[in-house]
C-alpha cells in the first residue's frame, strides 16, 4: 500500500487513520479526546477515568465507553492523533526527515526527531504504557514507524535483518526506558541522540 514518489522509491501512506464517521460521532470523538487531553495536562494521567472524561466533555459516560471501551483505548486514541502528525513529517515532510535525502541521513534524522517527539509526549506515552504495556507494538503508528525504519535499514544495511534491527533501534523509545534515562539518570535528549549516532556508527 505505497505511494510512488520518484523513480525506485516507495513511500508509505500515513497509517492508523480513523474510519470516516457521522458528523455527530466525529464531534463526540473530538470532545472526548479534547477533555482527556485537558485532564492529562492539568492533573496528570491518574485523573483519566471514563467518568472524569465524560464529565469534562459534557457527554454521557455510556457514550465514552461505547466510543473507546476503556481507559487504555482512550489514551491510545489520544496518542494516535499525535503520532499521525509525526508520521506525516517523516513520510512527506522536508528532507532529511522526509523524502529526498540519502537513506542513512533520513534514518538519523528520524531517530533524532523521535527523541524530541518522545520528550514532548512522555507523560501521555507513559500513561498508555502503564494502561496496556503491549498495546503500542500492535498499534498502527508503531507499525508504520517500524516499516519506515525497516525500509531505510534495507537500503543502508542490505545484509542485516532489517525487521529485527528496526525493533532494536526503536526499543530505546519505550516510555519507561526513556523516563529512566532522563529523569533518573539525568541524560539529556542531546546525549540520547549522540548515543543513537554511536549505535548507527555515524558522526554528528
Q: CATH first level of the largest domain: which class?
A: Mainly Alpha
- Tell me the major beta sheet: 2 strands, antiparallel
Helix content: 55-70%
The number of helical segments is: 10
Element-level helix/strand string: EEHHHHHHHHHH
Shape: globular
Structure classification: mainly alpha
**Uncertain stretches:** 1-11
| Sequence of strands across the biggest β-sheet | 1-2
Total domain count: 2
Q: How much beta, percentage-wise?
A: under 5%
Number of distinct beta strands: 2
CATH fold-level name of the largest domain: Tetracycline Repressor, domain 2
Spatial gap, N to C terminus: 34 Å
Cα-atom radius of gyration:
18 Å
The CATH architecture of the largest domain is Orthogonal Bundle
**Overall mean confidence score, pLDDT:** 87
Organism: Streptomyces pratisoli
Protein name: Helix-turn-helix domain-containing protein
What can you see in these coordinates?
The longest helix is centred in the middle third of the chain and has 22 residues, at 71-92. It is globular and about 55 Å long. It has a two-stranded antiparallel sheet. With 204 residues, the protein is mostly helical. The chain has helices at 23-43, 50-57, 61-68, 71-92, 103-120, 122-131, 140-156, 162-170, 175-184, 189-200; strands at 2-4, 10-12.
Brief digest:
The protein is mainly alpha-helical and 204 residues long. The chain has helices at residues 23-43, 50-57, 61-68, 71-92, 103-120, 122-131, 140-156, 162-170, 175-184, 189-200; strands spanning 2-4, 10-12. It has two domains: 22-69, Arc Repressor Mutant, subunit A (Orthogonal Bundle); 80-204, Tetracycline Repressor, domain 2.
Amino acid at each position: 500500500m505505497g505511494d510512488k514518489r520518484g523513480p525506485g522509491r516507495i513511500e508509505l501512506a500515513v497509517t492508523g487513520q480513523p474510519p470516516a464517521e457521522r458528523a455527530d460521532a466525529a464531534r463526540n470523538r473530538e470532545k472526548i479526546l479534547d477533555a482527556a487531553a485537558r485532564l492529562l495536562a492539568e492533573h496528570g494521567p491518574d485523573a483519566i477515568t471514563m467518568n472524569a472524561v465524560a464529565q469534562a466533555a459534557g457527554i454521557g459516560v455510556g457514550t465514552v465507553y461505547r466510543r473507546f471501551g476503556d481507559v487504555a483505548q482512550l489514551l491510545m486514541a489520544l496518542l494516535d492523533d499525535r503520532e499521525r502528525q509525526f508520521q506525516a513529517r517523516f513520510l512527506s515532510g522536508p528532507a532529511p526527515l522526509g523524502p529526498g535525502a540519502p537513506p542513512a541521513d533520513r534514518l538519523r534524522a528520524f531517530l533524532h526527531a523521535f527523541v524530541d517527539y518522545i520528550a514532548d509526549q512522555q507523560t501521555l506515552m507513559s500513561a498508555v504504557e502503564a494502561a496496556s504495556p503491549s498495546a503500542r507494538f500492535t498499534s498502527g503508528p508503531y507499525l508504520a514507524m517500524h516499516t519506515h525504519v525497516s525500509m531505510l535499514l534495507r537500503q543502508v544495511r542490505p545484509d542485516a535483518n532489517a525487521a529485527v534491527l528496526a525493533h532494536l533501534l526503536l526499543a530505546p523509545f519505550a516510555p519507561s526506558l526513556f523516563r529512566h534515562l532522563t529523569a533518573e539518570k539525568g541524560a539529556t535528549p542531546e546525549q540520547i541522540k549522540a548515543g543513537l549516532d554511536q549505535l548507527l556508527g555515524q558522526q554528528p
